[in-house]
Every structure is written in structure tokens, then in C-alpha cells.
Amino acid sequence: MSFWLLKSEPDVYSFDDLLRDGETIWDGVRNAQAANNLKAMEIGDEAFFYHSNTGKEAVGICRVTAPAGPDPTDATGRWVAVKVAPVRRLGKPVSLARMKAEPALADLQLVRQSRLSVVPVRPEERDAILRLSEG
DNA sequence: GCCAACGTTGGC
DNA sequence: GCCAACGTTGGC
Fold this sequence. Notes:
Blueprint (H helix, E strand, L loop, with lengths): L2 E6 L6 H7 L2 E3 L5 H9 L5 E6 L5 E14 L9 E16 H6 L7 H4 L5 E4 L1 H11 L2
Parallel strand pairs: 1-3
Antiparallel strand pairs: 1-6, 2-5, 3-4, 4-5
The structure holds a DNA duplex (12 and 12 nucleotides).
């Protein structure tokens, strides 16, 4: 069981949208490293839902409900998509600034490689973020 | 709006 | 196969 972080611009698709929809297909990923992360996901894996650009904060947790399969938005058939469902909203959003200020999160890939849209989160990093979300 | 980081493309 | 040019992402 692994833990991840998924980025979305809330103007395009927000955590509220996921709560409303109940499930969504995480498509449109066009980066090889991010695609490899999608392929490594298993049903039941969980991920922080992070709002990029507007908000810049983790706002919720979602769960993988379908493993990587063909991305319906990709005519070439080279890219993959997973499906996710909402688990819960975080008690308090955890901002990027807050994560950067946390020594335990110094190696967080979200911080180190800010352009990657699908990144793994280590267990101790997940715990640290969860702690911050509890206020 | 700017810029850093990074990926991709194309000329050689 | 190298590398300059360019495009994109996302933080600031």
C-alpha cells in the first residue's frame, strides 16, 4: 500500500468537484515520470489531493478505485489514467509554505520537483502532513 | 507578470 | 548523440 499526492488546478477540477462526482478518472497526465507513478498505483492506495496554482495546499484525501488503464483522452494509447474516489476533506488544508517550513518534509518530492503532477509520499511524510492537517 | 525548473524538439 | 531553442508548469 502506497501513498501519493495528486495535483489539480482547482479552477479546472477541485476536491469539491470530486466530492460531488463521487469518482473521477485521473486523465490527461502527459509526463513520463508522472505516468510511471500512475502505473505503480494499486487499488486502495490513497493520495493527498493538492490544489496547485490557486490555493497551493493539500485539501483532501482520495483513494485509488481503478488501476492504470488507457487514458481515454489520449489517441496514441501511450498514456494511462487511474480512477479515484474521495475519502475525506482534511480538517485543515496544509499549505505548501507550511510543508516547506516542516523539517520532516524537507525531502518531499512535491517540494523538490514542483512541476511533477503525480508524486509519491513516504509514510513518515504522510504522517507529518496529516499531523499538520489536524491543527 | 516573471522566472526557475524541466521536458521536448530539431538542427547539426 | 549533443545541445540550443522553445514550450509548459507552477511558485512567487
